[in-house]
Amino acid sequence: MDILIRGFLHALDLIVHLDPALREVVILSLQVSGAALFISIVLGIPTGVWLGLHTFRGRQILVALLYTGMGLPPVVVGLAIYLLFSHQGPLGNLDWLFTPKAMISAEIILSFPLVAGFTMTAIASVSVEAPQQLRSLGATSTQIVLTLLYEARNGVLAAIVAGFGAIISEVGAVMLVGGNIEHHTRVLTTAIVLETRKGNFDLAIALGLILVGFTFTANWFLLRLQGRLDPRP
Amino acid sequence: MLTPTPILSLRNIRHSYGRRIVLRLDQLDVCQGELLALVGPSGAGKSTLLRLLNYLEAPTQGQVMYHDQVYTPNTLPLAIRRRITTVFQQPYLLNTSVYHNVTYGLRLRGNRNGQAIVEEVLRTVGLANLRNAPAHTLSGGESQRVSLARGLVLNPEILLLDEPTANLDPANVRLLENIIMQANRQRHTTIVLVTHNIWQARRLAQRVAFLFDGELLEVTPTEQFFESPRHPKSAAFIRGELVY
Ligand SMILES: Nc1ncnc2c1ncn2[C@@H]1O[C@H](COP(=O)(O)OP(=O)(O)OP(=O)(O)O)[C@@H](O)[C@H]1O
Ligand SMILES: [Mg+2]
Known about the structure:
The complex is a heterodimer of chains A (about 230) and B (about 240). With about 230 residues, chain A is mainly α. In chain A, about 75% of the residues lie in helices and about 0% in strands. Chain A has one domain: MetI-like fold (Orthogonal Bundle), CATH 1.10.3720. In chain A, about 40% of the residues are buried. Chain B has two domains: about 170 residues, P-loop containing nucleotide triphosphate hydrolases (Rossmann fold, 3-Layer(aba) Sandwich), CATH 3.40.50.300; about 60 residues, no CATH class. In chain B, about 35% of the residues lie in helices and about 25% in strands. Chain B contains nine helices and ten strands. In chain B, the strands form two sheets. Chain B has a six-stranded mixed β-sheet, sandwiched between helices. The longest helix of chain B is centred in the last third of the chain and has 16 residues. The site of magnesium ion (MG) has 4 residues of chain B, from helix 1.
């Protein structure tokens, strides 16, 4: 018990004083997850809108693939990316293995299906009558899509937060393809594993608190945004 | 009297869903400035006809013309498309306030000085005190009035109304009929009014079109339609008999 309390207090101390080792890990985590999330949003929201609005041959297969992607085991994704970027792999000459680029690639594969899948469900839940009625009011195709995204805003925001949650807390894939190299590919989750093994509980706790703090902040932000966007009586 | 100018025309229309033909119509002209009532039994194809007139769907076969020019939903210029709007039978309202629903079409057009007309329309349809209410809390009749209001603020050249008074009490029906009448007689908006209420058609329209099972059985001046309908089925319909 004692070790926990002391660890916790020391952890707070590290956070308050912005310990350089801690700061480095936090910044890299946010950079890697931020880049992966950004790319997932840019690709995932249009994909979700497209799938939510159109019926075409082969759609069901795409949706089934997407749903599979939403539940992919991260280590398996890590393994696939590892093989892809390893020396004998098809993209080996890029030299991305054990770099943040490989970690971002793995995280995109994990978060893209979540963003696209939840966006698709959110868009599909808007009345099928809506596009036609918006068009009749004078909306262009782009304006229709933007309005539908606004109508489905709660679901779309949830899609983004789900994508963020999946990658900020991910450890298996980034460990495999990043290698947890100090000053280079060490992020919050992999650092926690390492510091715990080394017995540096205070640092591990500090990292854990920050990680939980990020997730909490993301969800808090989401709730505030949903509240702000909803009409009030 | 001037010869009426057709503003929207349908020619040789065959429209089907799957293998079922739901509209079979050789010719219909909607004339500039008129109020044309479209009546007929449920399932006759009235709402479908409005969708074609609004260029929301392309007919399976045949032409839809605006001022004698054939267009399709894909070739119709945006500026022309924005002169035609429909008030739908089951309006889809945006999940936002009444006010933002009513101003939606203006915002699409980048028009931010529609304040005066918005206020006026809100007042005439009796929604001024509900302006900040979330649209999803409205009653059926209130939603219908929002739907009419969001069309009216656009001051369209052609207004297509699909049962705009279906969920309303008699006082509100009268209110909306007056608004529709005003739009037609004072602002010279061309109106196609789908209604199940033949008395409403008689009160408001200059001509009545009778649609039966996808076919246009007659288009006649209102007085004549009610006094001496040309088609036996129209006569039965007016008497309130079920026609199949
Ligand atoms: N999108 C669609 N897909 C398949 N069938 C349709 C579709 N829209 C309409 N129909 C069919 O076309 C026929 C005409 O429908 P429509 O809605 O135009 O009738 P209506 O005259 O407006 O009826 P009501 O007075 O009940 O509103 C109906 O039999 C309907 O089932
Ligand atoms: Mg109808």
